[in-house]
Amino acid sequence: MKAIIPFLITISIVVPSRAADPPSRVQTGWVTKGEIWAGQKALLAVELYAPGYFDGAAVFDLPKIPHALVLPPVGSPVLDSKVIDGVNYTVQRHELEVFAYTAGKTEVPAFKVRFAIKRQALDHDSVTQEVATQPLTLETKAVPGVKLGEWVITSADLKVEETWKPEPGKNEKTGAAFVRTLVWTASDVPGMAFPPFKEDPIAGLGIYPADPLVEDKSDRGDLLGQRTDTVTYVCKAGGIVTIPARHLRWWDPVAEEMKRVDFPARVIDVIAPPVPQPTMGEKFRRWMKEDWKVLALGLAGAVLLAWGVRKWGRRVWSWFLPTRLAELNPAEER
């Protein structure tokens, strides 16, 4: 009988490895060309290249730059497709708004952008991508009359509406409250770029600012910035109180003219409240607190005087009585 020796045949199937997946790309550049005034809007284009299909919205890690603002894109990106080195890319074009509020060169550092893609349209899972933009430099012109490093607002149509409810005036009472509202609007200026409205302490007034309300609107790249500031003033004491005047300068790039908004001073005449009369209980407590020492000293003086009179009074009194002398010729000797 022949032994049957089992054997194992191993078949190795070698699948050629697929070339590495092409990376995502990013390209940045300035859309705004020519001279830009300090505080004027500049558009920065960020193009994202996905080797496949985008899945969801992109997230921008925007940098914080001293004396400048970089705002995230608003609305939907512009879509396109390109072939680079034989690779098909889906392209998203985003436009970011950059404001440099001081003249000179402003460095915009590289920042990261995260987004998800699918290599194939029918893929179930997406792949997270992260790219870094190229650093750029924005150069702005100095506004005439503005010192180097000074913050300036640049807009062709800045408006400020100031209202008081109620209007402060004369014969006001302590505890009266006045609400001051400022509504700022300007094209191509974000609401957060308006200068903060801060009041210095004023004697006799309580000042309570509310958080500003920013309500920017954007329509096809046209930005209308709006911010509302609200401050409540409360009369704390009687007398005449003055809320000082203020003003804001801003640059009109169309007219190339420095303009000004004035906020007039407000005078509040507060009636001093009548001084309340103390009650009997308050008078007694005040007497116990302030006058008991005087009373104690008076009693001590009276006791000491009585003791002195008792001990030394007769002797002192005798000094003022007439003294009877002895007779020179008594009657018995006659």
UniProtKB/TrEMBL annotation:
InterPro entries named among the record's database cross-references: BatD
Annotated protein name in UniProt: Protein BatD
Q: What is the lineage of its organism?
A: Bacteria, Pseudomonadati, Verrucomicrobiota, Verrucomicrobiia, Verrucomicrobiales
